[in-house]
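Worked problem 6 (solution included).
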Amino acid sequence: MSIFSSAPNSICILRLSAIGDACNAVSVVQSIQQQWPETKITWIMGKLEAQLLGDLPDIEVITFDKQNGFKGYLEIWKLLKGRQFDALLHMQSALRASIVSLGIKAKYRLGFDLQRSSDMQSWFINHKVPSPSSPHVLDGFKAFALELGIKERPLKWNIPIKNEAIEWAEKQINTKQTVVIVPAASKAFKNWHAKGYAEVIEYLHQQGLQVILAGSPAPIEIELAEQITQLTGDKAVNLVGKSSLKEMLALIQQAKLVIAPDTGPAHMAVAVDTPVIGLYAHHNPQRTGPYNYRDFVVSAYQEAIEDETGKKLSEQSWRARVKDEVAMNRITSEQVIKKFKQVSAQLDLQELDKVNR
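Solution. The predicted structure is:
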């Protein structure tokens, strides 16, 4: 039975990080807004995530900066002092988030059930949300909304993009169809190698497509982009480290296709309805893949996890992770190009369709 039969006065969302998970959560939070527009929603999120989502329509965003240490917790608690919410959606099973929750007063404190919970989250909640049959992170978030009393509905995203960011993206894209490649995640073991990307870029270039490399200014991303550029020359425009999150979102929105490993921009692409080919080996893409484009994933996960454990995929835990730090090397450029051909056949894209002629 649902917690609320009518719209509550206020709800607090607690999802600090990461970019991809926060983007997944947006669709769920906005589904609550669609059914209960009168409900006041406060979202506590990380400082980086707020750069992308801090201007969500009709949502009060409170930023938590983990770099401030204990002072960061005190700042949040001070801001929330004297406030009472009808419900807290504790959507991050991490001790850091649970400590933040100590300063949030709410009648109902929803968190994950034992199947999805970790880091002692159950100590900080009073209502466990039943896990759905689907392992995907977003479906786990959807379960929170359903538990509140939100009716099942198609997922939609509305992340504002200012004109300045749109204009910046338009200047980067020429008249050709554009493929944006985000080559690196924040963790090296999730990344594919420069040689593979270079071979894919060579193929895309032969099809007359513009290729843009995008990413954050993190050293690991800059380094991989430079390695790719050394192999491809001017066949790809290197914009890694040269855009804000909003500018990258605008760039992804205007692209015809995104190629990325298990990283936030893959989920940003879903949020702006840009098809994305995900490259996966360490995490099950059925759990962490780009939600609306899981069929477009190139995955070495099953092969890697079965070789590593000696167990079939059906015998694995839903959250089992491959430990081999070079598992992404199992993916070949031929597999990615083949997937590109399959994807282009499904999309109504004039230039991309050339590969099927």
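Discussion: The CA atoms of residues 151 and 321 lie 33 Å apart.
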